[in-house]
Structure formats: structure tokens, C-alpha cells
Amino acid sequence: MFTSKNKTPITMETTSQQNIIAAGTVITGDIVSEGPFRIDGTLDGNLKTQEKVVVGKSGIIKGTLEGDNADFEGKFSGKLLLTGTLTLKSTAHIEGEVIVSKLAVDPGATFNATCSMKGAVKALNHEQGKQNTNSEAGKTA
């Protein structure tokens, strides 16, 4: 009755509009998107995006978050992988594993996580390599 023999795939245009999970909404599962996100509800699962993620005061994520930048006012528990900056406001509560390039923490934020600063590590290793080369160049046998 409700089926059609002409099943054509639905294509959606990529836009820069923000995806919103509103307060009171609970989503269980994985989300993949190319657009930015604002989460004021609860996500119990994984989120992967190439854009910024904003988690409001009532927002909760339990799972893995992969993205560019993230601003947190709410709660996160799991694995956080960002290519850019993680910004924690005073009401943020983060637990788990965090891998970021830059970290900004406001006073009052709770940050109980193992943290790796990937961008800084490469820069430091490169600088240490230069210093070791320069100090050994000055030595004579």
C-alpha cells in the first residue's frame, strides 16, 4: 500500500546548517555528518563530523566524538578525538580519553581524563631534534 516500485536513492545537499539535538532528546546510536552540531540533549553513541561540536549545559555525550573543534558546557564520557581545539567552560565535566591539538580550560571545569596533545608533540620533537643536532655539531672528537 505504501511501497513504490520506483525506489530512487534520496540525495541530500551538504549545507552549513547546524544539526541540533534539543534538550530532552535522547539518541542512541552512531551519527556521521559533515556539518556542525549543537547538543543540548543526550547522545549515547558515537559522533563523527568534520566541523565544530558545541555541547550545551544540559548536553551529554557517552561514546566517541571525532571532529575538528569542540566547546563543552555539558558532560562527556568516552573517547574524544579532535584535530583542533577543545574548549571547556566552567560547567563542563569530561571523563575518559582525550586526544587534541589545543586545550582551553576555564576555572571550575572538571577534567578527569588522560590527555594527549598531538599537534604539540610533533612540534616539540622537531625542535628537540634540531637542538640535539646543533649541540652535537659543536662537539669535537
Descriptive notes:
The chain has one domain. It has 141 residues and is mainly β. The protein has one helix and 14 strands. The relative contact order is 0.11. The protein is globular, with a radius of gyration of 21 Å. The longest helix has 20 residues. 14% of the residues lie in helices and 45% in strands. It holds the Pfam family Bactofilin. It comes from Paucihalobacter ruber.
First-residue to last-residue Cα separation: 90 Å
- Tell me, rounded to a whole number, the average pLDDT: 83
Question: What is the H-and-E element order?
Answer: EEEEEEEEEEEEEEH
Could you describe the largest sheet, including whether it forms a barrel? Answer: 8 strands, parallel
Q: Which parts are unreliable, with pLDDT below 50 for 5 consecutive residues or more?
A: 7-13, 120-124
Regarding quaternary structure, how should these chains be classified? single chain
Percent of residues in helices comes to: 10-25%
* Cα shape: globular
In total, the number of domains comes to 1
**Which range does the strand content fall in?**
over 45%
Class of secondary structure makeup: mainly beta
Q: How many beta strands in the DSSP annotation?
A: 14
Helix count?
Answer: 1
Pfam families: Bactofilin (PF04519)
InterPro entries: BacA/B
Family: Belongs to the bactofilin family.
Protein name: Polymer-forming cytoskeletal protein
